Every structure is written in structure tokens, then in C-alpha cells.
Amino acid sequence: QVQVEESGGGLVQPGGSLRLSCAASGSILSFLTMGWYRQAPGKERELVAIITGGGSTTYTDSVKGRFTISRGNTKNTVYLQMNSLKPEDTAVYYCNSQLSTTVTRSWNTYWGQGTQVTVSS
Fold it and tell me: Is 119 exposed, middle or buried (0-12, 13-18, 19+ CB in 10 A)?
């Protein structure tokens, strides 16, 4: 019953900014982490950023100082503010959530469908 959905992707010029949004819905009991991954054609999916339920954040080196992950007023939402975008940031960005539901005792992982980010002039 858990659904994860991203939005906010699009086409921007190098140096531009985008803010991605992710919302998780369903019978959610608690969150362990929420994060963003990305995958370019022909490349492996890579971690971009993670935020824990307590607010701790982790970023991959290539986006440090440019991207910021944050939680909304409701823990069911997470954002990725992307500034100073580069062509190499072009990829499909996926929201990932590790959470527990009202009917499970274990942590489960859920993925969104992805949102396309294209950085090009």
C-alpha cells in the first residue's frame, strides 16, 4: 500500500537550479531514512543524498556544496534543492524510502518511479 512519488524534474541550463520533491503515502508507521539516487543511461545507479529520521544528512562528494536534502513539516516528504547544476547531473532521479508500516515489524525499502533532470544549454 505504500506509494512513493517524485516531482520537480525538468530541463535547465548549466548553473541553474531545480528542487525535487518526494512524498510517501500509505499506512506508514515510521521512517528510518529517505534519500535520492540517480541513474544516467548506461551507468550504474548512484546515491546522491540521504537524510535520517533524526535529520542527519549524507551527500556524495560530487554534489557537496551544491545540493541540499531536507524534510518537510511532515516526515512523509523530502526535498532535494539542486543549485549550480552541471551537465553531468543529468539523470533520472529516484526517491528512496526506508520505512516500516503498521503491519510489518521490519524496515522495507520503497522506490519512486523517477523524475528526469536534464542539464543542457
Answer: buried
SS (H, E, C) 15-69: CCCEEEEEEEECCEEEEEEEEEEEECCCCCCEEEEEEECCCCEEECHHHCCCEEE
**Backbone phi, psi, residue 62, to 5°:** -70, -15
| Residue 7 pLDDT level (bands cut at 50, 70, 90) | very high
Place of cell 539523470: 91
Q: How far apart are CA 51 and CA 73, in angstroms?
A: 14
Torsion of CA 8, 13, 15, 18, to 10 degrees: -10
Question: Which tens digits make up the pLDDT trace of 51-69?
Answer: 998 899 999 999 999 999 9
Task: Give the CA radius of gyration of the chain.
Answer: 14
C-alpha cell at 75: 516526515
